[in-house]
Design goal:
By secondary structure, the protein is of the alpha+beta class. It is built from seven helices and 14 strands. It has three domains: about 90 residues, Rossmann fold (3-Layer(aba) Sandwich); about 80 residues, Luciferase, domain 3 (Roll); about 100 residues, GMP Synthetase, Chain A, domain 3 (2-Layer Sandwich). A hairpin with a 4-residue loop joins strand 8 and strand 9.
C-alpha cells in the first residue's frame, strides 16, 4: 500500500491497542492504513473516537475477517468530514490480493476481483455456479501461480484441484455487477436442524447493539449431537449494562428462527486472537464448552 502511494511504511513491534493507534496517528499523520475488522470495531467504539483527529487518514482498508456494515458505517463516519473513506480488502496468503471495492462501496460486498486474478464459485463437486448461487471460492493467478506448501505435498494436493485452482475454503457468491460477497469460512458454517447458519451474519446483527466491543458466534452441540446451537460470546464495554436476554431478543427480532441464540449468550473479558487480529473461533468454542457445558 505504501509503495502504491509513494509513502513510508510504518512498522511497530508493539501489540495493538487503541491507545497505540491514537499515538501513531497523531505522531505520524498516517494517510493510508490497514486494520482487521476487530481492531476497527475497538477504535470506533472507543469513547474518545469522536474527539480524535482522523483528518490525515484518506484510505482505511479493512479485512482479515468479515466486515459488517455497522463497522464500515462507523469508520466512514470518522473519515468522511475530511474526505477519507473505508475500503474492503480480501485476499489469502496463498494467492495474495483478490478483491476490493475501490470504485464503489456496495452493501455487504467485498468488491470486484482485481487484475490478473481469476475467481470461480463452485459446488461440492467442483462445478462452476451461476450468478447469485453460493459455493466455495476457488482462485487462480494469471501471473504468479500458487505452487504449493513448502515440504507439505499432502496439504498441497488438498488445496489444489486437478486444474490448478486453489480452494480458499471461503463461501461466497457474485452478483450481476460482478461484486463478490463472502458468506463465511466453509469450516465455520453451523448447521441447525438441517439449516446452514453463517456466524458472520449473526455477529453483524449483534455488533449493531450499543455496548458490544467484540463478538464471536460459534456453535455448541445439542443433547443428541445432531445440531449446532448458535451461541454468542461477547466482550462488552466496561460501562455497558447489556444483558444476555437483550442480545437474545435483538437477534430473535432481526434473524430467522434457525439463527436464534439457543446456545446462550456469554460475556468474557477477552477473546483469543491471532497476531493479525482474527478471533480464533475454534478456541472460543472450546472455552465455552469447557466452562459451561462439560461437567
Amino acid at each position: 500500500m505504501s509503495v502504491m502511494n509513494d509513502g513510508t511504511r510504518l512498522i511497530t513491534r508493539r501489540p495493538f491497542s487503541v491507545d497505540l493507534f491514537y499515538e501513531l496517528i497523531a505522531k505520524y499523520r498516517i494517510r493510508f492504513l490497514y486494520t482487521p475488522a476487530s481492531y476497527a470495531l475497538g477504535i470506533t467504539s472507543d469513547a474518545r473516537a469522536g474527539e480524535m483527529d482522523f483528518s490525515s487518514i484518506k484510505f482505511w482498508a479493512l479485512g482479515a475477517s468479515s466486515v459488517s456494515e455497522a463497522i464500515r458505517d462507523a469508520v466512514d463516519g470518522l473519515l468522511k468530514p475530511s474526505g477519507g473513506r473505508s475500503y474492503n480488502f480480501y485476499g489469502t496468503s496463498e494467492s495474495g490480493f483478490l478483491a476490493a471495492d475501490f470504485m464503489r462501496r456496495k452493501a455487504n460486498a467485498v468488491g470486484q476481483v482485481g487484475t490478473n486474478m481469476q475467481v470461480r464459485i463452485v459446488d461440492e463437486d467442483g462445478e462452476p455456479l451461476q450468478v447469485g448461487e453460493t459455493g466455495e471460492l476457488v482462485v487462480k493467478s494469471i501471473g504468479i501461480p500458487f505452487l504449493g506448501y513448502y515440504k507439505n505435498e499432502e496439504a498441497t494436493r488438498e488445496a489444489l484441484d486437478k486444474e490448478g485452482w486453489f480452494r480458499t475454503g471461503d463461501i461466497g457468491y457474485f452478483d450481476e455487477e460482478k461484486y463478490l460477497y463472502l458468506v463465511d469460512r466453509k469450516k465455520d458454517i453451523l448447521k441447525y436442524m438441517g439449516n446452514q447458519v453463517s456466524p458472520s451474519e449473526v455477529e453483524a446483527v449483534i455488533e449493531q447493539m450499543a455496548g458490544v466491543k467484540l463478538v464471536c458466534v460459534t456453535g455448541v452441540p445439542n443433547k443428541t449431537g445432531t445440531s449446532d446451537l448458535v451461541t454468542a460470546v461477547i466482550v462488552k464495554d466496561p460501562s455497558s449494562q447489556l444483558t444476555a436476554e437483550e442480545v437474545e431478543q435483538h437477534v430473535a427480532r432481526n434473524l430467522s428462527d434457525p439463527k436464534h441464540l439457543r446456545g446462550g449468550v456469554f460475556f468474557v473479558e477477552q477473546l483469543p486472537m491471532t497476531s493479525n487480529g482474527k478471533v480464533v473461533r475454534r478456541k472460543v468454542r472450546d472455552i465455552i464448552l469447557q466452562e459451561h457445558f462439560i461437567k
